[in-house]
Specification:
The structure is a single chain. By secondary structure, the chain is of the alpha+beta class. It has a single domain, classed as Uridine Diphospho-n-acetylenolpyruvylglucosamine Reductase, domain 3, CATH 3.30.465.10. Helices cover 29% and strands 25% of the residues. It contains ten helices and twelve strands. The N and C termini lie far apart (51 Å).
């Protein structure tokens, strides 16, 4: 059980309550933390609840979009691609209404399956994460934030709306639509960015694919380069062999949709 519950009522209070993050468990929608508590896998000290923190707004200005960490995943379904398609397949309607963008972004791999469906679309969009913690506030690309391994409080993510985007995924037929593998692509200002989820511990950018596209390769040839960028794992949803077979096809579909 938690020994202390913190309930900030503004972003500033949330930052102050989080401090350097030591001993603090952040609770957004609870779709990841609560099962851990229920199964006795989480021992909580201080719990920071974001429900009233004011971090639940989506703003648009001159093509720039900023999404607060406490915005529910369901709020993204009518927004920009490839984020909208990814959001539409997170869990089920109840999960999407409760789960938050910050929680999904920070989700590490589960015990048996990948998580963090929004990570690849955000990487493809060139999104930037504003977070706080040890060393104070900072803004960095999503891929750098994920590679650093967490331990920080996400305040919001922002990106510039793309010129075109594509998304392709393999889902396991199930009530919760567990995503086995997904590819996201976004084109803006003549640059194409590609990222995947389900092929590593978190969403991963695919520089070899992007370089092939920049050099004039067609979608199929560029997509085949994805296996130079990632080494898919085995888990309860699918084998590494299966992932390696279908990943280039998903990447190709996402690229073609973005053209």
């Amino acid at each position: 059980m938690a020994s202390e519950v913190l309930l900030p009522t503004s972003p500033a209070e949330a930052v102050a309550a989080f401090g350097d993050g030591a001993g603090v468990t952040v609770l957004g929608g609870g779709t990841i933390v609560m099962p851990e508590i229920a199964y006795g896998r989480a021992a909580l000290g201080r719990v920071l609840l974001l429900a009233r923190s004011g971090l639940d707004q989506v703003t648009r200005s001159d093509g720039a979009v900023t999404i607060g960490a406490a915005v529910p995943v369901a709020a993204l379904e009518g927004g920009d691609e490839p984020l909208a398609s990814a959001a539409a397949h997170v869990g089920d309607p109840e999960i999407r209404a409760q789960a938050t963008v910050g929680g999904n972004l920070c989700a590490g791999p589960g015990g048996e399956a990948p998580r963090g469906d929004l990570q690849a679309p955000l990487i493809a969009l060139g999104a930037r994460v504003r977070s706080t913690g040890a060393g104070g506030e900072r803004v960095e690309p999503v891929e750098d934030f994920l590679a650093a391994g967490g331990g920080r409080l996400v305040l919001d993510v922002s990106y510039d709306a793309p010129d075109a985007a594509g998304y392709a995924a393999a889902w396991r037929p199930h009530a919760h639509h567990a995503t086995i593998l997904a590819a996201a692509c976004a084109r803006s200002g003549g640059q194409t960015r590609v990222a995947v989820t389900g092929a590593g511990p978190h969403g991963l950018r695919c520089p070899s694919v992007e370089q092939a596209l920049a050099a004039g390769a067609d979608a199929a040839t560029a997509a085949a380069k994805v296996l130079d960028d990632v080494d898919p794992p085995d888990d309860a949803l699918a084998s590494a062999w299966y992932r390696k077979r279908i990943l280039p096809t998903l990447v190709q579909r996402a690229i073609e949709e973005a053209r």
